[in-house]
Amino acid sequence: MIARIFPSVPQSITVFVFWLLMAEDASPGTLVLAAFLAWLMPQIAARLEREFARIGEARILLPLGAKLLWDVVVANITVARQVLGPEDRLKPGFIWIPLELTNIHGISALTSVITLTPGTLTAELSADRSHLLVHCLHVEDPEQMIREIKQRYEAPLRRVFP
Amino acid sequence: MQHLVLAPIVLPLVTGAILLMLERRHDVRVLRSGAWIGLALLLAAAVALVARADGGGIEAYLLGDWPSRLGIALMLDRLSALMVLTTTLLAIPALLYACAGWDRRALHFHALFQIQLAGLNGAFLTGDIFNLFVFFEVMLIASYGLLLSGARGERIAAGMHYVVFNIAASTLFLIALGLLYGMLGSLNMAELAVRVAAVAPEDVALVRVTLGLLLVVFCAKAALLPMYLWLPETYARAPAAVAALFVIMTKVGLYALLRTGSLWFGDMAGPFEGFARGPLLVLGMATMLLGSLGVVGALRLRIAAAYLVLMSAGTLFVAFALAQPGTIAAGLYYLPQSCFAAAALFLVAHIVQRQRGRAGDRVLPTGLALPLQTGLLFMVTALALVGLPPLSGFIGKFLMLAAVPAGDIGWVYFSVLASSLLALVGLSRSGSRLFWRTVEDQRDTDSVDGQPRVTRMEFAATALLLALVVAMSVFPAPVLRYTTATAEQLLAPADYVREVRATTPQVRAP
Amino acid sequence: MRLAVDIATLFLLVVGCFFVFLGSFALVKLSSFFHRIHGPTKASTLGVGCILAASVLHRAIHGTGLHPRELLITVFLFLTAPVAAHLMSRAALSLMDRRPEAPCSGTEPEGHIRDDADERAEQQARERAEGRDDG
Amino acid sequence: MLLLLLALPFVAALAIAMARGASRRTVAWLAAAAPVLGLGMLGWLTPAVMAGSELREIVSWLPQGGLALGLHLDGLAWMFAGLVLGIGALIVLYAHYYLAEEDSARRFFGCLMLFMGAMLGVVLAHNLLVLVVFWELTSISSFLLIGFWTGRQDARQGARMALTITGMGGLALLGGVLLIGRVVGSYELDAVLAGGDAIRASALYPAILGLVLAGVFTKSAQFPLHFWLPQAMAAPTPVSAYLHSATMVKAGVFLLARLHPALAGTDLFFYVVTTVGAVTLLIGAWYAIFQHDLKGLLAYSTISHLGLITLLFGLSTPMAVVAGVFHILNHATFKASLFMAAGIIDHECGTRDLRRLGNLRKYMPYTAALAIVASLAMAGIPLLNGFLSKEMFFAEALEAGEQSAFRVAISIAALLYGVFGVAYSLRFVHDAFLGRGPRALPVEPHEPPVWMQVPVAILVALCLAVGILPGLVIEPVLKTAVAGTLGEAAPEFSLAVWHGWNLPLVMSIAGVLGGLLFYFALRRLFALHDAMLRTWGRHLYHVNVEKLFNAAWAFTARVAAGGIRRSLFWMIVVVLVVGSAPFIGQEASLLGDLPAPQPMPALGWVLWAVLVASTLATVAWHGKRLTALIVIGATGLMVSVAFAMLSAPDLALTQLLVEMVTIALMMMALNYLPKQSKQARTPFRRWRDALISIVAGVGVAGLAYAMLVRTPDGAVSAEMLARSLPEAYGANVVNVILVDFRGFDTFGEITVFAVAALVVHAMLRFARMRPDEVMPGPPVQLPIPADLTQLLFPLALTVSIYLFLRGHNAPGGGFIAGLAIAVPVLIKYVLQGARAVEATFGFDYVRGISIGLLLAAAGGLGSLLFGLPFLTSGHVDLHLPVIGSLPLASALVFDTGVYVVVFAGALLILSTMGTVRRRTLAAEEAA
Amino acid sequence: MIDLMNLVISGAMVVVGCAMLLALWRLVRGPTAPDRILALDTLYVATIAEVVLLGMLDETEVYFEIALIIAMLGFFGTVVLSKYVIRRDIVE
Amino acid sequence: MEFALASGIGVLVAAGVYLLLRARTFDVILGLTLLSYATNLLIFASGRMVVGKPPVLRALVEPVRANYADPLPQALVLTAIVIAFAMTAVVVVVAMRNHADLRSDHVDGREPERKPDAGPEDERSRDA
Ligand code: NA
Ligand code: NA
C-alpha cells in the first residue's frame, strides 16, 4: 500500500527537500505543495524507471560524503601540481578494476566517485559489469590503486547499495 | 458580436486542434465532417465580417483589453474583410478537392489545412507588425506541412527550396522589425504611421533602409522579380488541392505591401510619401512580362499555372504601386478572381495529368483524348487568367488600365497587354496540344491505368472555382463598389490611425 | 563575523577561480585527450563549487539573506559531471586504434585517438579515389 | 428586343450543348432556329430602322467602370446583323450536309452559334468595351472552329495563328478603346462619335489610332498581318465561308466604318489606312493568282477585297465610305457562295488542288454555273454586284487625296487590282470548271445533295439581283447603312448600272481585258502550276513563334536552374541595393554624431572573442559537420550568456534550452546525412560569396551600430513596465508581455511550434530512412550514465514545475518549463534507447499538442464569458484554509497550454527523428 | 570591503574569462572530436561560474535559474555529441 | 560595448550568409542557425544595451525605463527564438528526406553540374 503511494521513499524525500530548498520557504502552502510533489514525482518517474534504487545503510552516506569531499580537495591540489609541472613526469595508464559491487546503482555511484576524484576517471564498464576501466593520470602502482579504490569507496558503497 | 473579428483566426485554429485530437482514433469521415463544420462556420464569419466592414467603419479589437499601443489589436476594415472572405472562398473548393482522397494520403492534412487558414486570416486581420510576422510564420509552417506531408522525391527538393528561401526571408523580416522597433519604438502599424511621419531628418536614411528591408520581405513573399525563383517549382510540385490554396499565399505579401504602403507611405507620411513606388512599378511590370514568358516556355501545365500566378502577382504590384484609387480598386477586384482562376488551373492540371496517363500534364501529345468537360474547364480558366473577355480577368485588367495615371500609360499598357498576349499564346498552345492533339500510334499503348480516377467531387471543386469567377464576371458591380470603397479607405490612412487611437479598452485605463 | 565571512568569501572566490582556471589550463597544456580530461571535469567542477559557496556566503551578508538553493546548482553539477566525463571517455575510447582490450590485462599504453589529421588524410584518399571533386 | 436577338445564338449554343444524345438533324434545327428567328425579328424591326430611328437597349453591367451591355440597332448594325444572320442561316443549312458522319455536329454547331452570337454582339454593341468583349469572343470562337478537326496539325496551327494574331489585335483594340474612353470620358458610341474632334486633337490620337488600327488590320487580315487568313483555311469550309469571307474578317472594316466619324479626317489616318489598304489589295490579289489550293485562292482574294474596303474607308470621302459599305455587302454574297462552291468541289472530288481539277462543268453543271456567276461577280463584270462597287472605287481612286502623285499611285493600284481580280477569277473558273481534267481524283465527282446547292443559289441570285436592279434591291439598304455610319454627313446618291461612258468604265474595261491577257499570257510564260510563292509573313510568324517558344523555354529554364543558391543570391543582392540606396548621393551619414559608447565589462570582451572565434571556426570547419556542430554550440552558448549579461535572463534560459534541443535535432539528422560537405572547387564562387557575405555583415553591423548609438525615445515599453504589476500581476515583465500584453504572439508562436512538430512527424512517419553509415554490432549499452540520470529526472521535473509556477514573477514560464522537462526525457531517449522509454512512458505526443493548443485557446477564450476580449487576464486571490493566500492569474491557463504544447511538440519532433530508423527496419522486416 | 569584494569578483570574472578563452583554444584546435566536446563542456561549466559571479556583482538572484539549468542540463550537449561519436545513431 | 555587439552581429551575419550560399543542406542549416543568432541579437539590440537591470520588477525600485532594460524586445526575441527553432526542425527534416529520397546532399536535390534537360526538342516534337 505504502509502496503504491510512495514507490520510492528516498526519492520522495529528495523531492520534498529539494522543493523546500528551491522555494526557500516553509509556509503551509509550500509544504502542501512540496508534499504533493513528493507524492507525484515518483509516480511519474515510475513510468520511466525500470527500478528504484534500494538504499541499504543510508547513515554511512554522510561520512562517505565528507570523506569524498576531503579527497576531492586534496586530490585536486595533487592534480594541480601534476598539471602545472612538466607533463613527461606523469605515468598515465588504463586499469581494469574488478568489481564486487553488483548493484548497478552502486556501480554508478562508484563510477561517479572515481571520476570526481582527480587523477582517476572511469571510461568503460565491461559488458558483464564485472570490471571497470579506469584511466589514471599518474599511477605508480596499479595494484595499490585498485586496492585503495576498493577499500576506500567500493566497500562502503556495497553497504549502501546491497 | 464584438468578438466576431476573432473568429477567422481562432475558429480554424481550434478546429485544427480538435481534428488533431480526433485523427488517431477516428475514421477520415469524422475528420472531414469536422473540417467542413469548421469551414462552414468560418464562411459565415467571413461573410458577416464583410457585411460589417462594408458599413464603412474601421474596428479595432483590443486583445487582452490593452490599448492598441501596448497590446495587439486586430483590425477590421474593408480590405482585411475582403481578404478573409477570399481566403475562405478559396479554401472551400481546395478542401473539396482534397477530400476526394489526398487527405487520406497526407498525415495531419486536415489540421494543417485549418491552421493554414488561421495563419492567413491572422495575417490579414492583425494590426501589429510583429504579430503580422508571427502569422506569416504560422501560415508558412502550415504550408510547409501541406506541401511536404505525403511528399516524395522531387517534391521534397522543391519543398527544400521553398522552405529555405522563406526562412531566409523571415530572417530578413526580423532584422527589419528589430531596426523598426529600435528606431521608432512601436509595433502597432497605426502608431508607426504617426511615428514614420515624424522621423527626425537625421534618422530618415536609416528608417528608409528599415522600411525598405521590410518591403523586400513582402516582395519576396509575393514573388516580385528577381525574387520569384522559388515559386514555379514549388507551386508546380505541390499537391493540387494545396497548390490551389497556395495561390493566396503570394497575395499575403501583396496585402502587406498594400497595407503598410497605405499607412506609412500615404499622404500623411511626410518624407516617406510614395516611398519605393517607382521601383515597385517597374519591377511589377517586369514580373508580369517574365511571368507570361514563363507561361509560353512552360513544358508542363502546372508550371504554366505557376507562372500565371506570378503574372497576376506582377499585375497586382503594378496596380498597387500606381496607388490611384482606381488602380487599387481594380487590383482588389482582380485579386480574388485571379486566385480563383489560378487555383482552378492547378486543379484542372491535376485532372489532366491523371486523364493523360504517362504523359501527365506535360505538353506532349499522347494517344488519349480528353473528355470535353476537362477541355471546357480548361478553356474557361485560361480565358479568365489571360484576361480575355468576358470574364473577370478582363474586367480587372481593363479597370486597372482605365485608371492608370496619364504619365504611366505607355509602359503599363504595353506590359499588361503584351503579357496578356504572351499568356494567350502560351496557353492556346498548351491547350491545343493537350486537348486537341492525339497521336494515332500511341492510342493503344497509352492508358490511365494506375492513375487514381478523377472523381465527380474533383470536377465539382474545379467547377465551383469557375463559378466564382463567372459570378464575379456577371456581377462585377457590387464587387467593384466594395473594392472602390476599400481603395478610398486605404487612401485615407488618417482615419485608420484615428480609429485605432480612439478605441479604448473596456475596463482598463486607456 | 561579517569580516570573517567576507574573508571566507574572498578565499573561496580565489580558490574557485584558481581551479576553474586550472581546469582550462590543463585542457590547453596537456598533450593527449585522456590527460586533458582530468582537468576540466574535476578541477573546474570543484572551482565552480567554491564560487557557488562564495556566492551563498556573500549573499547572506550583503544581499537578501541566506539562499542555500544555490548549492543545488553544485548538487546538479556533481551529479552530471561524471556522466559527461564518462561519456566523453567512452567516445574517445571508441575512436582509439588500440583500445584497452579485455578486462584483467592490467595497464595498457595509451593509443591514438582519431583526429583531424586522420580525417584529412582519409578525405584526401577518398578524393583521390573519386578522381575529382564536385560541389 | 435587341437583347433577345443577341441572346438567340447563345441560347441555341447552350441548347445544343445540353442536348446530349440528340440526333444530328435536331442539332441542325436548333442551330438554324437562331438565325431564322433572328432574321424574323430583324425584319420586324426594319421599318423603324429604315425610318431612321435608332433602337437602343442598355443593361447595366459595371456602371462604375463605364461598362454596360449597351446595344443599339442603327443602319450599319442593321445591315451587318442581317448579313450575319442571313448568311448564318444559309451556312447552317449547308453545313448540315457538309459535315461528315464522324464529325461532332454538336460541337460544330455549338461553336458556330457561339461565334454568331459574338459577331452579333460586335455589330450591335453601343458600348465600345462591349464591342471589345464580343470582338475577343469572335477570336476565341473562331479558334475553336478553325481547329475543329483537332487531329489535323494544320488545323491546330491555323487556329493558333489566327487566335494569336487576332487576339493581339483585340488587346491592342482594348488599349485604343481605353484611351478613347480617357479622352472622351465615356465608352458609349454616340459620345465617342460626337467627340471626334476631341480625339483628333488629343495628344493620344496617334496612339489611339495605332492601337485601333492594329485591331482592325489584324482582324481584317491587312498586310503585313494578313497571313493568318490563308492558314485558317484549314477550317471546315462552312467556317471559311462564314467567318473568313462574310463576317468575322469584316469585323475589322466594320469597326473602321463604325469609328470613321471619330477617327478619320486627319492626314495620318488618310495615309496610313489608304496605304495599308492599297498594299493589301495588291498583294492579296497577286498571291491569289498563284494559289493552287482553291480555298487559298479565295482566301487571298478575300485579303485583297478587304484591302479594297480598307482603302475606301481610308479615302474617307462620303462616297468612298458608301462604296466601302457597299463592297462589304457585295463581297460577302459572292465570296460566301464561292467558298461554299469550293466546299462542294472539295466534298465531291476529295481535293481542292487546282492542278488536279478541271472540266468539272461536265460532272456538276449546276454547281459550275453558280460558281462561274459568282466568280464573275468577284471579277467585277457588269450586271453583277461586284461591278457596281468596283466602279465606285475607281471613281473615288481617281479623286483620291490632295497630292497628285498619291492620286496617280492609288489609281494605278486600282487598275492593277482590276487586272489581278479578273486574272484570279479566271484562274478559278478556268482551272476548276473549264479546261482539261480532272486528274487522279479519289472519287468520281458528281452533283452534291441539292440542299447544299440551295444556299449557293440564293447568294448568286442576290448577286444578280443587286447587279441588275441596284436601285431597287440594294439602294434602300445601303442608304440605311450609310446613314448609320456617317450620320449627318451621309451623302445623297443613287445606284444605277449605267453611268454613261466615263473614266471608271474605261478602267473597268481595261481591267477586264488586261486580266484576260494577263492570265493567259502568264500561264504561257510562267507555267502557273509550278509557281509557288512563299508567303513571308507566315514563314516569319512560324520562325518567330518557334523562336519565342524556345527562347522562353530556354530563358525560364536557365533562370530557374540556379536553384536555391540563385534565389538567395538575388535576395541578398536586392537587400544590399535597398540597404545602400538611401545613402547614395545623400548627405545623411549612417552614424550621425557619435555619443560616447558605454564601457565594456571584461566579460563582454570574452564573450565577444569566443563568439567571433567560434563563428569563424564554424565557417572554417563547415565541411566537417560534427566539428562544425560542436563549435557552433559555443556560439550559441555565448549568445545566451550575452543575453544574461545584458539583463535578459529569460532569453538566456530560452536560448540555452533551445540550443540543446537543436543540437540533438542536428545530431539525429547527421546520422542520415553525409558526415562531410562537398567543397565547391571553384574559388571564384567562393570569393564572390565571401565578398557578398562580408558586405552583408558589414552592412547589418553598421545598421545595428547606428541604431544602438541613437537614444531611444517614446518606446511603448515604458508603459508596460509601469502597468505590468498593477494590472497584470506579474513582476517578470517579459513573461507578462508573453502571456498578457502580447499573448497573441505567443499563441501564434506555439502554433508554429506545434505545426513544426506535426510537419516533422508527417514527413518521417512513413518515410524510409537509411542512415548514411550503418554502425556494426548491437546497440551500445550505457548503463552507468543511464542509471545516473534516473536520479536527475524527478529533480528536473520538479525544477520544471518550479520554473513554470514562478514564471510570472521570475525568469521562467511555460515555454522554458516545457523545454526544461523535455530535455531530461530526451536524455533518457539517448541513454536508454527509444524502445525502453516509449514502452513505459505511454504519452501520445500528437494528442498532447492538441490538448495544449486547446488549453491555450481556452485560456484566451475564458474572458469572452465576461464580455471581455480574447486573452484578457483575470486575477483572483484564493484564501484557502491551510495553504493560505494563493494568487491565481488566469494567464496561468494559457501558460499551461504553452507548457504542454512545448513539451509534447519537442518530444514529438525528437522521438520521431530518433525512432525513424527503427520503424524503417520494422517495415523492411514486415515486407 | 564592498569595493574590494567587487574588485575581487570582477577579477574572478576575468580569470574565469581567461579559462573560457583557453577552452575556446582547445575547441578550435581539436584535434580530436572528444577534445572539442570536452572544450565545449568546459565552456559550459565556466559559464556557470561567470553567471554566478555576475549575480554576485549585480546583487540579484535572477541569474539563479540560468545557472541551475546549465548545471542540470548543460551536459546534455556532451551526452548527445559523445553518443554520436560512440555510435552515430544517438537514439537507438 | 555597442561596437562589440554590432560587430558580433556583423560577423554572425557574414558567416551565416556565406554558409547559406554553400548550398549543402547541412551548411545551409548551420548558416540559418547563425543568422538566427544574429537576428535575435539585433532585435535584442533594439532595446539598447543595459547591463545588470533585468526587467524583473523589484520592490522599492520604481518601474521606469531608467531602472530596467526594455522588456519588449526580449519578448520579441523569445518568440523569434522559438519560431527559428521550429523552422530549423523543418529544414533539418526536409534535408534528411532530401538525402533519403534523392540521394543528394545538395539543397536543390541534385548535383549542380547536371544541366537542365537537354533542350525543348526532347519534350516537344515540333508542330512546325
Ligand atoms: Na535513431
Ligand atoms: Na537557434
Automatic annotation (TrEMBL), chain A:
The chain crosses the membrane at residues 16-40. Keywords: Cell membrane, Membrane, Transmembrane, Transmembrane helix. It is a multi-pass membrane protein. Its main location: membrane. Signal peptide: none annotated. It is found in: Cell membrane. Pfam families: MNHE (PF01899). InterPro entries: Cation_antiport_E (IPR002758). Belongs to the CPA3 antiporters (TC 2.A.63) subunit E family. PANTHER family: NA(+)/H(+) ANTIPORTER SUBUNIT E1, NA(+)_H(+) ANTIPORTER SUBUNIT E1. This is Na+/H+ antiporter subunit E. The lineage of its organism: Bacteria, Pseudomonadati, Pseudomonadota, Gammaproteobacteria, Lysobacterales.
From TrEMBL, chain B:
Signal peptide: none annotated. The chain crosses the membrane at residues 6-22, 34-53, 79-100, 107-126, 132-151, 163-184, 204-231, 238-258, 278-299, 306-326, 332-352, 364-389, 409-427, 459-480. It is a multi-pass membrane protein. It comes from the Bacteria. Keywords: Cell membrane, Membrane, Transmembrane, Transmembrane helix. It is found in: Cell membrane; Membrane. Its main location: membrane. Residues 128-420 form the NADH:quinone oxidoreductase/Mrp antiporter transmembrane domain. InterPro entries: CPA3_Na-H_Antiporter_D, NADH_UbQ_OxRdtase, ND/Mrp_TM. Belongs to the CPA3 antiporters (TC 2.A.63) subunit D family. This is Monovalent cation/H+ antiporter subunit D. It comes from Luteimonas composti.
TrEMBL record, chain C:
This is Monovalent cation/H(+) antiporter subunit G. The gene is mnhG. Residues 99-135 are annotated as: Disordered. Residues 109-135 have a biased composition (Basic and acidic residues). Keywords: Membrane, Transmembrane, Transmembrane helix. The chain crosses the membrane at residues 7-28, 71-89. PANTHER family: ANTIPORTER SUBUNIT MNHG2-RELATED. It comes from the Bacteria. InterPro entries: PhaG_MnhG_YufB (IPR005133). Pfam families: PhaG_MnhG_YufB.
TrEMBL record, chain F:
It comes from the Bacteria. Signal peptide: none annotated. Residues 104-128 are annotated as: Disordered. It is found in: Cell membrane. The keyword Cell membrane applies. InterPro entries: CPA3_antiporter_subunitC (IPR050601), NUOK/Mnh_C1-like (IPR039428). Keywords: Cell membrane, Membrane, Transmembrane, Transmembrane helix. Its main location: membrane. The chain crosses the membrane at residues 6-21, 28-51, 71-96. Pfam families: Oxidored_q2 (PF00420). PANTHER family: ANTIPORTER SUBUNIT MNHC2-RELATED. This is Na+/H+ antiporter subunit C. It comes from Luteimonas composti. The lineage of its organism: Bacteria, Pseudomonadati, Pseudomonadota, Gammaproteobacteria, Lysobacterales.
